[in-house]
Amino acid sequence: MPQPTDLLFYAFAGLTLLFGFLCVANPLSRNPVTSAMFLVLTIVSMAGLFVLLNAFFLAAVQILVYAGAVMVLFLFVIMLLDLREEERRKLNRVALGLGGVAIAGLAGILVRALASATPKSASVPAVEGTTIELGRILFRSYLLPFEIVSVLLLVAMVGVILLSKKELK
Amino acid sequence: MSIQAGLGHYLVVSALLFCLGLLGVVARRNLLVIYMGLELMLNSANLALVAFSRFNNNLNGQVMVFFVITVAAAEVAVGLALIVALYRRRQTAHVEDLVSLKL
User: Fold this and answer.
1) Chain B residues lying within 8 Å of A142, measured CB to CB
2) Whether residue A83 has pLDDT greater than 60
3) B95 touches chain A (CB under 8 A)
4) What is the CATH architecture of A1-85?
5) What is the ipTM of this complex?
6) Out of B28, B66, B67, closest to residue A24 by CB
């Protein structure tokens, strides 16, 4: 008998894959804005999967940082560049077919390998990714990487300002 | 596999999502949509890490995801700035028009 959480897993997993597919290969629209909107939906349904995995803090961060900040940046750039519908150009059918076959092969290999592996039972005590637990481990064991990442963000910020100047001197 | 959602189920979703992202990178020819495919691949790796963290009763995986999200945010900022700079010079975001290294 499936538990309610299992049904929620199937619902969120199906939505994630459906929206992900519509993001990269929407048969109805080639518009980048449509892709961006479906990517937002993919990320939100993936936050649902994170909640099912007890990673509450990461689910919140996923929505705030990805669906909020990163996707707004994407939409901002799309509007700034004023990108129209991707023009229909002549497709290289051989290349597209080969690429599709390669990716389908990769998917098949991964899924078969996972299906044949002996799965761990889900009865282990659930680890809870709350803010308190995650903050404790982040500021105790991972303090140096945390500081390095903050320097990385500063470097990225300076780099972006330099790149977006009109004339590089 | 049983019907109960276990580690394997989450990993299958993650693998399929990774392949979808790769499909976007291979099949689409708009630079921004290719970038969205990359984001999808990063997210699928995050999902696998969180699933491993949950089923091995170990929080280190979630800390790793935290760092991945931070680095992805920095990467998006730099990448989009590069795309905007490229667009200013060449007036196109179509990969087939961007085949030479020389500006």
Assistant:
1) 63, 67
2) yes
3) no
4) Up-down Bundle (1.20)
5) 0.91
6) B28
